[in-house]
Amino acid sequence: MIRKDMIFVDVSATNRDQVISKLSETAKALDLVDSKEDFIQAVMQREEEFPTSIGFKVAIPHGKTKTVKEPFIGFCRTEQPFIWEQEGNKEVSLIFLIGVPQHLEGTLHLVILSQISRMLMNEDFRRKLSESKQKEDIYALLLDIENHIKEKNEN
Amino acid sequence: MTKKIIGVAACPAGIAHTYLVAEAIENAAKKLGFECKVETQGSIGIEDRLTAEEIENADLIVFSVGVAVRDNERFEGYEEKSIKVPLHQTIESIDQIMADYFNK
């Protein structure tokens, strides 16, 4: 579920739309979604109900929609923090974009997503996301969570 | 006696916030030296389901939910020791809210 080509570090984006668009475009290129536009629409609808910036410079936009073919999580770290949306006025530089199909068989992917969500409350984990120099380091960090859960699942 | 905190976490998509707030409640309880168990009602289903005994014995029940609580009747009669905390507030300041609750 964790893929290196869905991880971006030090992106020059300065607003929410740019980040969501960049990650969604990559998801489309990797055939994880049928339609980039439909996916973005689902994500933005969720944002409008309630923005997904959670503090600590983190945002977790997500879309649960039938245009998602395979569950995925993308990550983008921006060069500079930016205001996620005016009302909440929260600075963000670490963004996880999550895509989940409307009807998902099995729970393994959801368990991985739930564990990454839990890890975001961990200061040390966030520091590693902020300070890792290369995307390979972040990939290793996330892959470790995935492998750990897969192992647990097999036992 | 160590305070016993229990919580219920749930959000509309059941993908991320449910688990963020569960972790936030658990971390805050740990920091304050309290016992803690949080039931998550997410897209995986109900995990760490609270038993009648745990509900009865809890000193505080934290509801951090953005949707209706499943099997809500379990918590009837315990309104006096229940608090509702919005998802974002839980992530930001549940430690302070818990500390204040026991210091009032």
CATH class of chain B: Alpha Beta
Can you tell me the number of structural domains of chain A? 1
Give the termini separation of chain A.
20 Å
CATH fold-type name of chain A: Mannitol-specific EII, Chain A
Protein name (chain A): PTS system IIA component, Fru family
Keywords (chain A): Phosphoprotein, Phosphotransferase system, Sugar transport, Transferase, Transport
GO molecular function, one term (chain A): protein-N(PI)-phosphohistidine-sugar phosphotransferase activity
Organism (chain A): Isobaculum melis
Please provide a written account of the structure.
The complex is a heterodimer of chains A (155) and B (104). By secondary structure, chain A is α/β, with parallel strands linked by helices. Chain A has one domain: Mannitol-specific EII, Chain A (3-Layer(aba) Sandwich). Chain A is built from five helices and six strands; from the N terminus they run βααβββββααα. In chain A, strands 1, 2, 3, 4, 5 and 6 form a six-stranded mixed sheet that branches. In chain A, β5 and β6 form a beta hairpin. In chain A, α3 packs across α5. Chain B has 104 residues and is an alpha/beta fold. Chain B has one domain: Response regulator (Rossmann fold, 3-Layer(aba) Sandwich), CATH 3.40.50.2300. Helix content of chain B is 38%, strand content 26%. Chain B is built from three helices and five strands. Chain B has a five-stranded mixed sheet. In chain B, α1 links the parallel β1 and β2. In chain B, α1 runs parallel beside α3. Chain B starts with a strand and ends with a helix. The model of chain B has no long low-confidence stretch (mean pLDDT 96). Chain A: It comes from Isobaculum melis. Chain A: Keywords: Phosphoprotein, Phosphotransferase system, Sugar transport, Transferase, Transport.
